Amino acid sequence: MGSATAELDLNELPRMEWDWIANEESDPTPLLNELRERTWIAASDRGLEVFRYEDVSRLLRDRNLQKQPHRIMNRVHEMGITEGPVHDYHERSILTLDGDPHVQARLPLSAFFAPRRAERHREAARSIVERAIARVADRPVIDVLDELGEIIPAEMFCHLVSAPPELGPTAARLADSMLTPLIERGTDRTAEHVAAYHELMDLLGELLAERRRTPGEDVLSDLIEMNRDGKLTEQDLLDQAGMLLAASIDNTAHQLTWALGALLGEPGQWAAAAAGTYAPAQIAEESLRHATIVSSIMRFPVETFEYKGLTIPAGRPVFLHVRSANLDPRVFEEPMEFRPDRTMRPGPINFGSGAHTCLGQHLARLEMQEFLTQFPAAFPDAELAEPLRNSYGPFASRVRRCVIRLNAA
Fold first, then answer.
1. 376: which of 55, 147, 251, 308 lies 20 to 30 Å off by Cα?
2. Alpha-carbon span 113 to 248, nearest angstrom
3. Confidence at residue 1, expressed as pLDDT on a 0 to 100 scale
4. Percent of the chain clearing pLDDT 70 (strictly above)
C-alpha cells in the first residue's frame, strides 16, 4: 500500500498518552477527537494508534495485518489457565485463530448468518423484544443491562438452537462468565470461568443430543448435518456452538444497553423515536455509530509494509480505533450529534471488516432495530433515573449501569 506523501519517521509521530486502567471510567472520546484532527496516526507505549475512518477501514481489510494467536492466549495464561480443556478450547477458538485456520473455522456458520438467511429471524427478534418489554412493563424502574440487554440476545441464542426461551438467563450468565473475564483482564474470575466452560459443554452436549433426536431449522441441526457428512468432528460441534453463545450474547447485550442509554440522553430524539419517526435501520445504524462499544482492534503486520509514507515494521502492534473512526467528520457530518436521519454511506464499522468481519452482525442489527423502535414506542415518557455509567477499556467498552424510570411523566 504505497503513497506519494513524504516519508514519516516512527520516532517523530505525535504521542497518545492514555492509561486505560487508570482512566477506566473516563471517556477517551475528547482525546481521540483531538488526536484525529491532528494526525491520522500516533505512537503510544503499546504501539501505533490509527484514528481516521479511511485508514481504519483500509487497514482492517489489509490481509498483512493479522491477529497473533499467542498474544490472545497470553490473556488466558494470565488467568492461570496454561493447559487442559479450557486452555485448548480457547486455542481452537475462532476469536484466536488467523490466516487459513481462521477461514476454515468460520465456514460452518458463514452460510447460516448470511444477510438473507439472517433476515428470516426478523419475526423471532420482534417476538423476543415484545416478550422482554412485556415482562418489565409494570416496573417503575429497571436496570436495562440485567433485565433487557442480556436477556434479548440470550433468547435469540435459544431461538437459533431451538432451545426453550426459559434457558435465556442461563445462557446469558454463561456468556458473561466465558467472555467478560477475558475482556476485563482480571484474575479474580478464573474459577468462575473454568466452571462456566464445563457447565457450557454439558449444556451444549444436551442440546446437540436433542437436535439429533428432533432436527429442525436451526444452527445446531446444520452443524450436525455437517458432522454426518464428515465435515466436522464432535469436538468441532462443541467448539462452534460454544463460540456461537459467547459471540452472540455478551457484546450485543452491552451494545443494546448503551444505545438505549445514549438515545435517552437525547430527549428530542427519544420523542421522535417514540413517535415512529425513524425507520428501524436508521436508528440502529446511528446508534451503532454514536454509541460504539468497540474501542480499538489490535493487529500485527506479518511483513514490514509502507502506508502513507510510513514504514511500519513487522510485528509492531497497530491499534485501529473504531470509535474514533465512527466519529470522523470527514465521513459523518456533525458526528457528535445523534441524528438517525443522516445518510449513512459509508456506515459504522463496529463489526470490523475484511477476513474478521463479525459473522453475527446481521442478527445483531435485527435485534437493535426491533429493540430501539419497540422500546421507545412502549415507554415514550421514559428517562434515565441516573446518569449512564460506562467503563472504557482498550478494546471494548462496557455498560456498568443503565437505570431507567419507565413512566417518568
1. 251
2. 11
3. 47
4. 96
* pLDDT of residue 302 exceeding 80: yes
CATH code of 10-405, in short, is 1.10.630.10
CA angle 112, 248, 283 (to 5 degrees): 95
What is the rounded CA–CA span in Å between residue 392 and residue 398? Answer: 7
- Burial class of 359 by CB neighbour count within 10 A (0 to 12, 13 to 18, 19+): buried
Does 267 score more than 80 pLDDT? yes
> How high is the pLDDT of residue 3?
43
Cβ proximity of 116 and 363 under 8 Å: no
Please name the residues in contact with 184: beta carbons below 8 A apart, sequence gap of 6 or more. Answer: 393, 398
| Identity of the residue numbered 247 | A
CA distances from 272 to 130, 262, 288, 290 (A): 20, 14, 18, 17
Contacts of 389 by beta carbon, 8 Å cutoff, 6+ apart: 25, 399, 400, 401, 402
CB 160 within 8 A of CB 152: no
Contacts of 82 (CB under 8 A, 6+ apart): 76
Strands lying side by side in the sheet with 383-384? 141-143, 403-405, 383-384
Distance CA 293, CA 91 (A): 25
Backbone φ and ψ for 312, nearest 5 degrees, come out as -105, 115
- Cell 420482534 locates to 126
Question: Per residue in 156-168, pLDDT tens?
Answer: 999 999 999 999 9
What are the CA-CA distances from residue 1 to residues 4, 58, 253, 306, 309 (Å)?
A: 11, 10, 37, 6, 10
Give, rounded to a whole angstrom, the gap between the first and last alpha carbons of the chain: 57
Q: Which of the two residues, 231 and 354, has the higher pLDDT score?
A: 231
Q: What is the pTM of this model?
A: 0.90
pLDDT digits (tens, 9 = 90+) for 164-215: 999 999 999 999 899 888 877 667 889 999 999 999 999 999 999 999 999 9
Q: Give the helix ranges, DSSP H, for 39-167.
A: 53-61, 69-78, 85-92, 99-110, 115-119, 122-136, 144, 151-160
Domain ranges of the chain: 10-405
Give the count of beta carbons closer than 10 Å to the beta carbon of residue 230: 7
Query: Residue 302 in contact with residue 246, Cβ under 8 Å?
Result: no
Cell numbers of 227, please?
458432522
Average pLDDT, stretch 11-28?
Answer: 92
